[in-house]
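INFO batch 0412 | record 1 of 1 | parsing
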Amino acid sequence: MQVSGTKNSYLNSFRLIRRDAGLSLITQASLGFSYFGIYAVIFNLYLLRLGYGLRYISSVNASGQLVFAISSLIIGLFSKRSGSRTGMVLGMGINLLAFCLLPLFKWNQIPFGEIWLMAVYSLSWLGLALVIVHIIPFLINTTSTTERGLVFGLVGAILSLSGFAGSLFGGLLPGYFAGKLGLTLNSPEPYRYTLMLTAIFIIPGLIAMIGTSEQGTENQIKTNPGTESKIPLGLIILFTLVMLLMRTGEGSVRTFFNVYLDTALNESTSLIAFLSGAGQLLAIPAALATPWLIKVLNLRRTLLLGIFGMACSLLPLAFIPKWQAAGLGFLGMMALTSFAVPAFGIYHQENLPLKWRTVMSGTATMAVGLSWALISFGGGFIISKFSYPIFFMTAIICTVCGGLIFWITSLRFDTKPIVKQEIGLKK
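INFO prediction complete | emitting tokens
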């Protein structure tokens, strides 16, 4: 009877998902397929085929992530003027524009090509920042505590599933185009054509987001302004620091996993795409387990499991120079990230007053971009000067430090959120 009751409760949570939250999940699927699927596999390989070295590749990635970090903070501070829906619509539109423009590099011999690559790639990260900063408060405002854990888990699962499909799609297309064009996979053209198709898959997500309303953000519970006027700066700084450190491990594999397999282990594009897709696929059940883990372990323990597990996932990449070990580490990182990240999103949002939640989302997103930018800039230098193992060990140390800071400081908090207001919408 207990199992049946739990199952019915889980299914009821699906029925409680509101229209706006459901449409936003379509946007996440669109973003996952294009950005975390096709681009994650192909973009760095495209740069390699253009003849660029590791230093320039790391600089391009870092420039985009730095724009992501800076713009996330600005968006978080000023988003109240536009609203979450408007921000996400604008972000998806910018992504569509950037994905159309980026592959034009060397298509018509654009002057200052290297600057063009950095500028347009950074533009795509600006669009991504607009979506990611606003999605957490948007979902917090369009869900109740009953289905909130499920919805946040679904975000991770959908991103992973669409990323898996995009990885496989992106991995197969260069070979198809190479055959049609009579070229080898050492030429940049097959990768350029693959990237050109990415813009098409942004369109459904943009349409879905346009179909949402601002109703969710307009029906928040009214609270006494005097109780929320003072910014909880200490909490915001703490959560931002933890986010910055804990995401370095994920950033190290997202930026350099495909480069590591291609340049250090000499593996094929199809294998890289398969491993990338497998990592996204494994993340689906892990993400769907988010509400169960939170219920069994509570938010704090779920986060600790995720952060320290992410650090352990990098050990095979640091110590075993085999594609099997690298794949195992990547699989672990994707699975653990898929529940640790949404859990931390719920944690910092529920531990802050309503007035400051979008600011916290912006600073947390800024921390991700800054973390990945630092790991990209530093990675290019460390790998060139030393080795991949030293680079991955550096990422391990940073991730462990984030876990330790969270472990020590979170002991001060009750496992229940300090903010008691409920944000659910009226039926």
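INFO post-check: Residues 145-181 form the longest helix (37 residues).
INFO record closed
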